[in-house]
Amino acid sequence: MKIFQHVQDIGDLGQALAEAQEVKRDRFQWQYLGRNKTALLIFFNNSLRTRLSTQKAALNLGMNVIVLDVNHGAWKLETEHGVIMDGDKSEHLLEAIPVMASYCDLIGVRSFARFESREDDYEEKILNQFIRYSGRPVFFMESATVHPLQAFADLITIEEAWERRVVSPETMSPGASPRPKVVLTWAPHPKALPQAVPNSFVEWMVAAAAQSLPLGGVGGGLDFVITHPEGYELDPQFAGGAHVEYDQMKAFEGADFVYAKNWSCPGVTRPGDYGKVLDDYHKMMDWTVSARQMAVTNDAHFMHCLPVRRNMIVTDDVIEGPRSLVIPEAANREISAQVVLKRMLESL
Ligand code: SN0
Question: pTM for the full model?
């Protein structure tokens, strides 16, 4: 694997999930793969889980790891071509990338959407320069438009929880669906957040449904519903074909998994509002996931990528409740990262 950006990069999802379980059985069995190999993790934005879980995954594989927080200690980087560099930026990305690449074998990059231009963000201007000028395998650690390590961990988490619930087709109650119903819900937030997490989650869920991925050993695929206020329609390159239900309560009916996330306007149905918060969050607080919505679900599990703003996105009782998966979901970030790094090491 030379690039990890989209769900297609991982290939067959059933095989990827099987490999994730193989990693869980003994995560140190491939230390020979990473011997004398170096992973460079570059952060243009804050991180807790991505930084720690990816570093841990690399260490599990016997790799050396270098972490660079560009905003703390590195030269300020110019990313635009052709500018006269008379401002505060001391170095150009076009020199920085090949230099950084010369010290490592694999590169992971985090660079969020900047919301200056929809075209720049959706063309992945920063990450594509890393792909083009580094000559190294590049994995996306949340870019302007995608967060595939998160979506892969989410799929692993859903599979594991569904496996615990659906033991065998025989033990299922008559008429019960062997397919889980997964709902992605928008929820309020005081700041404008990227669409990377929902884009990837949707992309991976749509692919799991299309591949009729057996989850928990039975059935095929899943039923997937997206709910959000009007104006927050996700880009069709990710959400194409997915069912959107604007009535949140209706979307939650019979759900087995509720995945909450805030995102700013993707600029699909409202091109002039790209990257904006469309309505004051005070007016949107009935979208906060609480016991009221969870009551109409099929005792749904609650999921969120974290960090989460409590009592904005989700109430304390739901995130602390017995159906909350946020901690195992975060723990699975180590596993998804290890599968990806392992595949990249195997193809060096
Ligand atoms: C990021 C996002 O894409 O929504 C990272 C999620 C993994 N989240 C934030 O930036 C949250 C910031 C905040 O202040 O709540």
Answer: 0.96
